[in-house]
Amino acid sequence: MLAPVFRFGPFELDAAAYQLRRDGVAVKLEHRPLELLICLIERRGHLVSRTEIIERLWGRDVFVDVEAGINTAIRKARKALGDETNGPAYLETVVGKGYRFKGAVTVTSATPARSSVAVLPVAGLDADPDTQYLADGITEELIAALGQVLPDEFRVVGRTTMMRYQRSEKPLATIAAEIGAQFLVESSLRCEGDSIRLVTRLIAAAEQTQLWGGTFDGERRKSILACQRQLSEAIANQVHAHVLGPRAESFGKRQGSNPAAYDLYLRGRYRWNQLSAETTRQAIEHFQRATSFDGDYALPWAGLAVCFAAAPVTGDASAGQMLGPARHAVERAQRGGGADLAEVQTAEGFVQFWLEWDFARAEESFRRAAAMDPSDSLAHRMIGVVLGHQGRAEEGSLSSRQACELDPLNAANFALAAQVAFFGRDFSRAMALARKAIAIDPALWVGYLQLAQAAERLDLPEEAFRALDNGAPFCGNNSKMAALRGFLLARAGHPDAARALRQELADRRSQRFCPPYAEALISLGLGEWDRAIEHLQHSIEMRDVHLHFL
Prior knowledge:
Layout: E1 2-8, E2 11-14, E3 19-22, E4 25-27, H1 31-42, E5 48-49, H2 50-58, H3 67-81, E6 91-94, E7 98-101, E8 106-112, E9 115-119, E10 123-124, H4 129-149, E11 154-156, H5 159-163, H6 172-179, E12 183-192, E13 195-204, E14 209-219, H7 220-239, H8 249-255, H9 259-272, H10 277-293, H11 298-315, H12 319-335, H13 342-355, H14 359-372, H15 377-389, H16 393-406, H17 411-423, H18 427-440, H19 445-457, H20 461-471, H21 479-491, H22 495-508, H23 516-526, H24 529-541
Parallel strand pairs: 9-11, 9-12, 10-12
Antiparallel strand pairs: 1-2, 1-8, 2-3, 3-4, 5-7, 6-7, 12-13, 13-14
């Protein structure tokens, strides 16, 4: 399947590159007008109603006035095309109905769309609870390994999306159609004592035919590493006959040499992906134990670095206390030969961005990770976040969109895409993306936070409070939710309630770390400028990561 390029007059619109060009030179056009132009050209010659445009650009169930947004998008698209309102060459207005693209269009092909490989969750075939972590770990490692060794023309569907099919009874053809996969990897795992049997087959989705099948028997503690390497190599070799050779060595770099360390690494990955304060603590313990068995094993060191660097954002840890352990973990990952692994570059970016405040180097690290593994949605997500924090939200939205396309059932991708839209002051789009995140995972508290802050900017205080109420049970008492509530209370004319909440946050400091930024935000809502500046100054002294959000 080839990605289209639409040519009309002196223009060409490359849908894959998401770029409008005139006589081969890129024309600057913001995200929403460009999306509108793609929509109209795809439906060229037909009336596209304003309702259809709203759904395409903002999503369904948008409870804000987007009429002005449509008018603005049309005006900017016309300006980019040099089109006239009266007697337009391209964008025709059908009064009271919508718009129609009227120009002659030639459709050609850009670069071939990448074929997709989807690794279905490994099915555990026995009642042993330890089998599930091992099955999930093998699934994750297959996804990560294939993403880094397959060439750029292959896309490996993201872990979060694939885990939604765990224990699914859907036919394989239906799953392949839903995620747009050309190849499916299906596996089952049975454990009896220390013995394991892993059965895997590679399926061509369109024909529903088995291209390859393999069975591996061995011992969990001694053979699982060899099993993982052989399986990854065999699948990659079958998907693309030329992938092995110079790239095959990366399998060995990924998985180290100590079976006990590898087992603990899989346990840590399994806990980390549950994204709660308690499971993150357990993940750190497993990663640390893995490094005690194999001090040169890069992946658990990278896992530790990400856990430490993200802790001030996800769990109100002290950035000052996290910096040393996070930097040490990254250096050990690199020393262990992991500089060529996408996970290590991502870990480097996390530390540089959240703890060292070096946005330029963080962007470079995340881009290196994305180059090493083009299917890694986390790397693309973080590129978007870093660009958004640098005031490059329009550029960042493209990376955010790519992350969402790579792993379309990963709620965090949509929640962080909402943050990028928020930085670009596109609050309606931020709301739509936040709603999408919540629809995918109703327990993701970040989605509710994004929805609340966007609603506040759109002067929808009731919806903002409702979002905070709905997200409160899932946030683990995170200060960001409380601080935004206090700010909203102050803005809504409830200063006493806002001050009481600020005092509650101050009282937390006797029990655990609470970022001073939280109290600063409530003080800003109250108009108490001197007190707000005092807290912000304290934030600077403490290297509070929340200053990123100013």
